[in-house]
Amino acid sequence: MRLSDYSETSQVATFVTDTAGKLAAIAKGSKRAKSPTGGALDLLSVYEIVFSPSRSGGLATLREAGMKEHFPGLRRSSAHFYAGLYLGEVSSLFAEGSEGTSEHFDLLVESLRHLARLEADEVPYIILFFESHVLEAAGLEPNLSSCARCGGDLPKRGAVRISLEDGGLLCGSCDGGVEVRPGSLAALRRVFESTPQSVRRLKLRADLLAEVSSLLSAALIYAGERLPRALKFAKPRAARSWRRWAPPREGEAAQSTERRGESRTGRSGASAGPRAGKRPRTHKRPARREDGG
Ligand SMILES: [Zn+2]
What we know:
Layout: E1 2-5, E2 11-16, E3 22-27, E4 45-52, E5 60-70, H1 78-95, H2 103-117, H3 123-137, E6 160-163, E7 168-170, E8 178-180, H4 182-193, H5 206-224, H6 231-234, H7 236-241, H8 256-260
Parallel strand pairs: 3-5
Antiparallel strand pairs: 1-2, 2-3, 4-5, 6-7, 6-8
This protein binds zinc ion (ZN).
C-alpha cells in the first residue's frame, strides 16, 4: 500500500496481508532487474510474498515477491488512483492489530477490482461501499436502528441526530449529536446494505452523496483515530467537512490536532490503532499471535 526508496537499489514496502495484518518490510535489491522480487515493487498490486519477521519489532525482510494481480484501471484517472491510495491507507490502518483475519485483505482487493472497472463518476460509490464495510468488519459501524446511548426507539419522522462518540443515532430523550437529514440517513442505511456491484446503482442526489460521504469519513476517522493522508486527495470535499460530525471529545480539544489533525509531523509507532474492543461483538481477533515463522 505504500512504497519508499531505502537506497539506490532497495525499497521499503507496506503491505496489507491476509494472514499477518499490516506488514512493513525492506526489499533489499528490489530495484535490480534480477532480484527475488522480480524488479521494483509496484503500488496497489497483489503479491504473494515470503518474508522473515523482525525480531526487534522493526521492519521485516522481504525474501520473495511474485505479482498475482494488478489493476491497470486504477491508472485511468487521478480520481481512480487517489481512491485506490485511500482504500489502501484505510485498510492498512484497520489491518493493524487484526493478524489472522483475511477480512480486511479480501475487502480491499474486491474493492480495488471494482474501482478499476468503474467510470470516474462512479468512484465515490465504491469508496462508500469500502468505508462502510471496513467499519462493519471492525465491529465499529454506527448503530442506525436504535438509540446508541440508551437503546430507546428512534423518532419515527423528521431529522435524527447522530453521535459518533456514542456510536450511532440518538433518540429524542438523549441530547447532543449532529442532525442527519432523513434522506441522508436512508442513503446511509442503503450503503451499509450494498455490495460492490449494487452500490453504484444508488445514484444519490449530489447533496445527499456529499453528506453521506462526509459522515462516513468522519466515522472512519473517529473509529481509527487517525486522519488518512490520502483523504484530501481522494475526497477533498469530505476532507473539509468531516469535522462537523465529530466534535472533539471532552478534554480532547487540545490533543485533537495531534491525534487526528493534518498537521501531524511524521509517523508515530506508538500511536493508537483503531478503537477495536469498543464493540468487540464482530471483531475477529485471534487469541494468539504467530510471530515464529
Ligand atoms: Zn436515547
